[in-house]
Structures are given as C-alpha cells and as structure tokens.
Design brief:
The complex is a heterodimer of chains A (173) and B (295). Chain A has 173 residues and is an all-alpha fold. Chain A contains seven helices and no strands. In chain A, helix 3 packs across helix 7. Chain A starts with a helix and ends with a helix. Chain B has 295 residues and is an alpha+beta fold. Chain B is 34% helix and 23% strand. Chain B is elongated. The two termini of chain B are 49 Å apart. Classes of the chains: A mainly alpha (173), B alpha+beta (295). Chains A and B meet through helix 3, helix 4, helix 5 and helix 6 of A and helix 1, helix 2, strand 2 and strand 3 of B.
Chain lengths: 173, 295
C-alpha cells in the first residue's frame, strides 16, 4: 500500500477526465480532419480516417458513441472532406446499426472477429461509395477500390490502438 | 468484447424508453442521411452554400499546413539540386539556348499571326483572369480527383470557371466558398475536356481516368492518330475552356486512343489562375449535373 505512493506521480488520485463522455466523439471529429493534410494525391489512397476511428470505438465499447451520434459526426465528415452531403451520415449510421445487430448475435468477440467485422463494413462502405460516384457521373471499375480498401483494412489495428489508448487515458486508468 | 449492458434494460421503464428512443434516433439518422444523399444526387447545387462555408472553415488549416509542407519539400528538392550540379548545369544551359531560339521564332510567328488576323478583320476574345490562388489540398481519400485552391467567391470566383496554371489546364471550379474553392481536376472521371491534337489539329476528347492520367479518344474513327510525346491543347469547343491551353502529353497508346499525363501537375503547380469562361453563356451549363457525364 505504501509502495503505491512511490509509483508515478498522481498514481493515487486517478479519475476520469471531465470531458470523458465527449472525448470519443471529439476524437472521431478530429480524425476526419486528418485528410486535410496538404498532399495533392494522384490516386485516392487514404482511408476514411473518421470512419476507421468510429468503427474502432464502436467495436471497443458500445457505450462510447451512441448510435445516433454517428449522424452529426457523419455530416461533419461530409462537410470537411467534400463528399456528397448525406453520404457519410447514411454510411456511418448504417454501420452503427449493423454493429448493434451483430452485438445481439454474438456473445463474445475476439480481436480477429472485430477486424473481420471492420473489414466487412469498410468493404460495404466502398461499394456504396462506388455506386454514388457512378450516379454522380464518375463511373470507375471495381478493381480501383481494392487497393484503398486493402490500405484501410490494414490500418484498422492502428485505429483500434488509438481508440483503446484514448479510452484508457480518458478514464484515468 | 462483452455485449453491452444497456441492451437488456430490465424492468426500468426509463431504461426501456431510453433504449427504444435511441433506436428510433439511429433509424431516423439513417433515413435523414439517405434523404440528404438523394438530394445531393438529384440537385447538387442545393448544397452549394453549405459546402462553400465548410471549405471556408477548413481552408485556414489547409493553408497553414501547406506553408509548412512547401518549406519541407523545398529543403529536400533544394538539396537535390547540388548533386551532380556541373553536369546538370551544362545540360540546362544547352536546353536554355535551344528554348530561347524557339521562343524568338515563336514570337515572330505570333507577330505574323496577329498581322494576318488583323488583315482578315478577325476579332478575338482575350480571356481575363479573375483570381489566382495556390493549390492547398486535394481529395486524398476518394476516387474523385478534387483540389482545393485558396481563392474564393470573395475574389470573384464562381462555380464553373476554368482554372489553369502556367503549365496547362488544371480543371474547373465546382464549389466556391468565400475564401476557398474546390476544383475538379482534369484527371477526374467526370471531367471531359474538348481538345485537339497540336501536331495535326484533329479534334479529340480528353476524359480523366481517376488515377492522375487522362484518356484521349479521337472524334473521327480511323487510324490511331496519336504518337508518344504528342501534346493536346484545348480546342475552345463548348465555350468553357479558352482555346490553345495545353492539357496533356501522350505517354502510351491504347487500342484506339491514348493515355496522357496532364501538363499541369497539381502537386507542383505554383499558382492556379481562375479565368472567366471563354463564352460567358457557358457558365450556367458548366455546373455539375448528376448523370450528365455518363456516355
């Protein structure tokens, strides 16, 4: 008991941060801004970082971001990235609803099952994106989405790490 | 992870209602999203104001990050100029002399052209530039090729205006905020530029392929008229882009067309000029209409 006091400073009075309930949503909104980096890209290789972090948070814990918060976060993502307005709203809310449904079907989830779920949702989002782009006058072949999809799926563990580190920090553990 | 406790609300009415209404809110969010998306597809100009405002909000972030990245890039490219500089120097001097001779010749031809046009009493419009800005960002995360420039409706930029750089055509404006605007690059799939082959004068159509290259197709059926290294310039057809602006250079031949790289590389363009459309009546038709580009 005495030794705890010799540990790192502040080890005895750790508590959740004041904004702990808002931190997951704020982090997703900030992740949407990552695409504002001033890189002029020839090919669209970057994953949708806001969506990745949203999936990571939702797969980590279901009470961090309520399902209906995905709608305003999606609207922010649309505005910042220049996507057709309503696209991220529909995709992100749909993803939250699908993950709610999958919660009821499975009792426990492994890390690999979570990665698989995230990969599936990213694939569905890219497919929907392709349909919307074709409807807006820019059709492209299916194979074009495979490379950015692979990059997004492989980046998911990074997003999961960020989500769990943020969770530990905001709860004061 | 374990299933959430709130999925089983138990006997508490408050918890049950809370769960029910949160589901309702989620479904409502989904339907609202689909409705907004349908509006985006059917009437994209309905969101012009809100998209412009969003560009304005994020433009300062982009511009400041751009300053950092150009400095960093300058360090690297500056260091590269010192490598093998003697040989580079000699080669550049030779190129410079050859280009100077060509420029003098071109100037003489231009004079002769002007005199001939005056003799024929032809009146030519000169295109005025409206604003100039730097390219401060692009769409990294999607298959659409957009770029963001730091000139907006406060400088006179309007939707549909063509954007060019000194090296060639960059694209046209599709969203305009007060301080920034979004440009549809020539390499985007929905961008179609009527052009002509500089060598023969044959009309071709340049469509973007979405990966930084442009697809060229001749308007007349016949033998493939392209050769590697050919330059295509705008032809002025359609009234939006002024004629004789360089568009792209052929790198590879296809079965009945060619693949070309745009002359103005948006990553290395210093200034982008926004110009008025060549024919003022072309401006309202230049707004993106859903499905119009599907051929």
């Amino acid at each position: 008991m005495v030794r705890t006091a010799l540990g790192r400073p502040g080890a005895l009075d750790r508590r959740p941060k004041k904004l702990a309930r808002a931190i997951p949503a704020l982090s997703v909104a900030l992740a949407s801004l990552v695409s504002l980096l001033p890189i002029v890209a020839e090919v669209g290789w970057m994953p949708d970082t806001g969506f990745l972090l949203l999936l990571a948070w939702r797969l980590l814990r279901s009470d961090a971001i309520p399902a209906w918060w995905a709608a305003p976060l999606g609207l922010w993502n649309d505005l910042v990235l220049g996507l057709p307005i309503g696209f991220s709203v529909a995709v992100w809310t749909g993803a939250m609803i699908l993950l709610d449904l999958s919660d009821r079907r499975t009792m426990w989830r492994d890390y690999w099952v979570e990665w698989l779920l995230a990969a599936l949702l990213l694939f569905l989002a890219e497919l929907f994106r392709r349909e919307v782009d074709a409807a807006m006058g820019a059709p492209y072949p299916f194979v074009t989405i495979l490379a950015p999809l692979a990059i997004a799926i492989l980046t998911f563990p990074l997003a999961a790490f960020v989500a769990s580190a943020l969770d530990r920090w905001r709860l004061g553990r | 992870m374990a299933p959430q406790q709130s999925a089983r609300p138990g006997w508490s009415r408050r918890a049950q209602y809370g769960l029910f209404f949160s589901f309702l809110a989620a479904i409502a969010g989904l339907l609202i999203g689909l409705g907004l998306l349908a509006l985006s597809l059917v009437a994209p100009s309905a969101y012009a104001g809100v998209r412009g405002a969003a560009l304005d909000v994020t433009a300062p972030v982009r511009s400041s990050l751009n300053a950092v990245s150009t400095t960093a890039e300058g360090l690297f490219s500056g260091a590269g100029s010192y490598w093998d500089s003697a040989r580079q120097n000699a080669r550049l001097r030779r190129e410079n002399d050859a280009l100077r001779r060509q420029a003098i010749q071109a100037r003489a031809i231009l004079q002769e052209n002007k005199q001939l046009k005056a003799a024929l009493a032809l009146r030519e419009k000169s295109v005025q530039s409206v604003a100039s800005g730097r390219i401060v960002g692009s769409s990294l995360e999607s298959e659409r090729r957009f770029a963001v420039i730091s000139a907006g409706s406060g400088d006179g930029v309007a939707v549909g205006m063509p954007v060019r750089a000194a090296e060639g055509l960059v694209g046209r404006v599709i969203d305009a905020g007060a301080t920034a605007a979004r440009v549809l690059l020539v390499s985007d799939r929905a961008n179609i530029v009527p052009s002509r082959l500089l060598r023969t004068g044959q009309p071709v159509i340049a469509t973007g392929r979405g990966d930084g290259t442009v697809d060229l197709r001749p308007l007349e059926v016949g033998k493939n008229p392209f050769r590697r290294g050919d330059i295509v310039v705008t032809s002025g057809t359609g009234g939006l882009y002024a004629p004789n602006v360089p568009v792209a250079q052929v790198i590879r031949l296809d079965d009945d067309g060619a693949i070309a790289i745009p002359m103005a590389d948006p990553a290395h363009v210093s200034f982008a000029l926004v110009e008025r459309p060549f024919v003022p009546a072309a401006l309202p038709q230049a707004e993106p209409i859903a499905g119009e580009a599907e051929r």
